[in-house]
# Entry
Amino acid sequence: MNASNSSHSAAGESPPWGYDHPDCRGAAAFLFFTSDLARVVNQQLAGLPLDAAALARAQQAVDALIQKYIEVQAAPAAFNGQRIILKLDAEQPGDVPQVALEMSPELEDQIIEAQRLAQQQAALRQ
# Structure
């Protein structure tokens, strides 16, 4: 993860992290978090074989992301004690494995509620 606050206007630079955004507070923090979560998992697993070592590296990055959201107090206490566990999942033997995310129920509920509120607000603006 790159924790810098630098602009991403130069070619080749990645966009800033959600936790660095000034609006990353309260319910909005969960929307930034879901974007950052997808980014972390993709960065760690893109182009690599899905094996235990890759999954372990991705898990460490996800754990660090949750810790970062705790440190910046994006949603005070909302991320404390929460977890996301990455698992390899294949429906049938021989299927290409997929990465499944298992979230603690509290975190999952908060993310779903934040997404619902964002959709309502977007519908009202139209």
Notes: DSSP finds three helices and two strands in the chain. The first helix runs from residue 27 to 45.
